[in-house]
Amino acid sequence: MRTDTKLTTLLLGVVAVATSLQSQSATDVTAWPNIIPPTSESALLGWLNKGSYKENFIPEPKVHPSPVHGTVRTYYNPIIAGDLHAKRKAFRKGAAMVKELYSNGKVTGYAVMVKALKNTKPAGSAWLFYETFSKTGPSAIFGRGAPECAGCHKKGTDFLLSTFRPYK
Ligand code: HEC
After folding, report:
1. Does 160 sit in the ligand 1 pocket, CB within 6 Å?
2. Spatial distance between the Cα atoms of 22 and 44, rounded to a whole number of angstroms
3. How far apart are the C-alpha atoms of 91 and 98, rounded to whole Å?
4. Is the C-beta atom of 150 inside 6 A of ligand 1?
5. How far is 68 from 66, CA to CA, in rounded Å?
6. Separation CA 112–CA 74 (nearest Å)
7. Is 152 in the pocket of ligand 1 (CB under 6 A)?
8. What angle do CA 167, 116, 62 make, to 5 degrees?
9. Which residue in 54, 85, 96, 149 is deepest, having the highest Cβ count within 10 Å?
10. Which atom of ligand 1 is nearest to the CA of 162?
11. Is the Cβ atom of 66 under 6 angstroms away from ligand 1?
């Protein structure tokens, strides 16, 4: 092989690696920080209190009244946002929604859903549900397929009930 051909081959190789790294980091949102909430109860509460979801989640434009959950603002992670954009009817593992629960203009609790497993069973056992009305978490509801939540959320699109779509 002539030296200039070798050099061209080498350069093409470098470009190919650089391109594949770039496209990987652009599409693999799961590698971004704070995309998937922790799935142990105390770690999850700490993560919420730190406001970690605000780093990369997409919020509803405003705090608003919910028919069920009081006064709320919901944030979607980029996994469910991508799924909705692609019109998927079942969301990928890692899809997550965080709902801030407000009283007197302040966040006083959270309701959270994380798709912890790939397939949604009819009972919603793929989804981890969490709700606390206090930032310290006593008597919180926590569990995959928690019947208090799944019973109502099963009416939704893969358990999603909000009509918010994070794109125009
Ligand atoms: C009686 C019905 C009902 C029950 C029970 C219920 N929810 Fe919801 N939930 C709703 C509705 C309706 C919405 C969409 C409107 C809104 O609140 O913004 C919603 C929205 C949400 C959202 C935002 C994502 C989405 O699906 O729209 C989360 C997160 C959530 N609920 C968590 C929970 C958790 C956790 C529980 C159990 C502790 C629970 N919900 C129990 C009716 C219910």
Report:
1. yes
2. 31
3. 15
4. no
5. 5
6. 9
7. yes
8. 30
9. 96
10. 27
11. yes
Q: What is the pLDDT of residues 5-19, one digit of tens each?
A: 554 444 444 444 444
Residues sharing a CB contact under 8 Å with residue 36, sequence separation 6 or more, in sequence order: 30, 77, 79, 94, 96, 114
- Structure confidence by residue, pLDDT tens digits, 89-138: 999 999 999 999 999 999 999 999 999 998 767 789 999 999 999 999 99
Q: Cα 13–15–17 angle (5° rounding)?
A: 70
* Count of CB atoms situated within 10 Å of the CB of 48: 22
Radius of gyration (C-alpha) of the chain in whole angstroms? 20
How far apart (Å, rounded) are the C-alpha atoms in residues 4 and 108?
66
Distance (angstroms) between ligand 1 centre and the Cα of 55 equals: 22
Task: Check the CA dihedral 44-147-117-70 and report its sign.
Answer: negative
Ligand 1 atom nearest to 113, measured from its CA:
29
- pLDDT tens by residue, 14-64: 444 444 444 444 568 888 899 999 999 999 999 999 999 999 999 999 999
CA distance 133 to 99: 11
Cα(114)–Cα(92) distance, integer angstroms = 10
